[in-house]
């Protein structure tokens, strides 16, 4: 079975790599088509092929002009031309085209129209609201694209229910639980590049976007700092929002020395180093279906604090400390016992690690995914 896996912007590289390797291990002939890899990517294809099919010219331009508006415009134009006029032969010749992310819905519509009827189309809906409130043009028309696929893959009942509520035929939706992931292990240099904690350390890592609630985390930490509690907060990742007002709020309150920032696209090893040196990992998301960041942190055995949005609301008791999504004061109260007690952190971290070991693995995911492919191909036949 030939599978063309698409993640044009490589939004979820660790997920793509894990799934493609597992599918290849199960006997599928897999090609991952995405953008050219960057120095911060940690993909080493095992048993499958990686083809930089998308954004070749704009990625080369990125090195010269950065990631500002000219780059984003160039990227959108290149992708639109590729979807409308690019060679789709390698995709059409696959038995299954499995799309992980649709990065620009108006352009993606053109590509899907060209592929419809020529090959089986499968899409993993990582979040029912694909880009949350941040979508803009990027997600405009996304819902209509879902009707072009022969099957939709989701990772939990929250996403399934949301799609059914949007009018999707339940028979087209397949639930395959998202296995835990493991980032590239930090090297000695990675560990040396991250300062050692001087007090209990809370970590937020990953892309920084409005829906992820970093502002709520800042407010919660300020409440506890002002109440006299000593701990550190680290923000590690690429901001896709204006974080200057948040940083200014911390400086104005006199706690700049307790906030550490490591902004930018970070290597997996550096992110892993941040997790190693943290005591608590925070996921204050306003809304989410499933979180790859959470699933990549479980094996570290750290205490975690999460909102009750999406998959977090379904976690077994004790795996994480939860608070009502959007409530900074409740988050502050949730953080307090974790920063005050090493024993509580150790107990909860052990429960988080244990939970990760019973969530299934990528072999299970590959078997389930191939089952979906076979069902789609049989229906088409």
Describe it for me?
The strands form 2 sheets. A 7-stranded parallel sheet has the order 3-2-1-4-5-6-7, with helices on both faces. It has a 6-stranded parallel sheet with strand order 10-9-8-11-12-13, with helices on both faces. The longest helix has 19 residues, at 362-380. The chain is built from 15 helices and 13 strands. It has 381 residues and is of the alpha/beta class. The radius of gyration is 21 Å and the shape is globular. Strand 11, helix 12 (292-297) and strand 12 form a beta-alpha-beta unit. It starts with a strand and ends with a helix. The mean pLDDT is 94. It has helices at 13-25, 56-65, 69-85, 89-92, 105-115, 142-145, 157-165, 188-193, 214-226, 244-252, 268-276, 292-297, 328-340, 342-357, 362-380, and strands at residues 2-6, 29-33, 49-51, 96-99, 120-124, 151-154, 173-175, 201-205, 232-237, 259-263, 280-283, 303-307, 321-323. Helix 1 crosses helix 15, helix 2 (56-65) runs antiparallel to helix 3 and helix 9 (214-226) crosses helix 13.
């Amino acid at each position: 079975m030939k599978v063309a896996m698409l993640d044009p912007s490589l939004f979820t590289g660790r997920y793509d790599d894990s799934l493609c390797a597992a599918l290849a291990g199960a006997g599928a002939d897999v090609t991952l088509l995405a953008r050219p890899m960057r120095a911060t990517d940690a993909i080493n294809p095992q048993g499958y092929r990686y083809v930089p099919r998308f954004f070749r010219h704009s990625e080369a331009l990125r090195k010269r002009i950065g990631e500002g508006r000219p780059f984003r415009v160039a990227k959108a134009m290149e992708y639109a031309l590729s979807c409308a006029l690019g060679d789709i032969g390698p995709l059409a010749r696959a038995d299954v085209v499995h799309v992980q992310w649709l990065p620009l819905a108006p352009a993606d519509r053109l590509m899907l129209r060209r592929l419809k009827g020529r090959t089986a189309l499968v899409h993993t809906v990582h979040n029912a609201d694909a880009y949350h409130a941040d979508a803009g043009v990027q997600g405009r028309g996304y819902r209509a694209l879902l009707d072009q696929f022969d099957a939709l893959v989701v990772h939990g009942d929250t996403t399934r229910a949301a799609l059914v509520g949007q009018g999707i035929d339940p028979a087209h939706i397949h639930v395959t639980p998202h296995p835990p992931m493991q980032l590239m292990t930090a090297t000695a240099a990675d560990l040396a590049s991250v300062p050692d904690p001087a007090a209990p350390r809370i970590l937020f890592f990953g892309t920084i976007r409005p829906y992820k609630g970093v502002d709520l985390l800042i407010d919660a930490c300020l409440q506890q700092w002002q109440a006299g509690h000593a701990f550190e907060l680290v923000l590690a990742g690429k901001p896709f929002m204006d974080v200057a007002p948040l940083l200014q709020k911390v400086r104005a309150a006199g706690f700049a020395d307790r906030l550490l920032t490591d902004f930018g696209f970070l290597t997996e090893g550096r992110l892993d180093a941040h997790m190693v040196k943290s005591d608590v990992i925070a996921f204050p998301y306003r809304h989410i279906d499933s979180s790859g960041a959470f699933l990549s942190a479980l094996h570290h055995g750290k205490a975690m604090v999460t909102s009750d949005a999406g998959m977090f609301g379904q976690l077994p008791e004790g795996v994480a400390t939860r608070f009502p999504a959007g409530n900074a004061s409740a988050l502050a109260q949730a953080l307090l016992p974790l920063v005050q007690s090493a024993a509580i952190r150790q107990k909860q971290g052990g429960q988080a690690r244990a939970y990760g070991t019973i969530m299934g693995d990528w072999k299970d995911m590959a078997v389930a995914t191939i089952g979906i492919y076979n069902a789609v191909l049989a229906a088409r036949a």
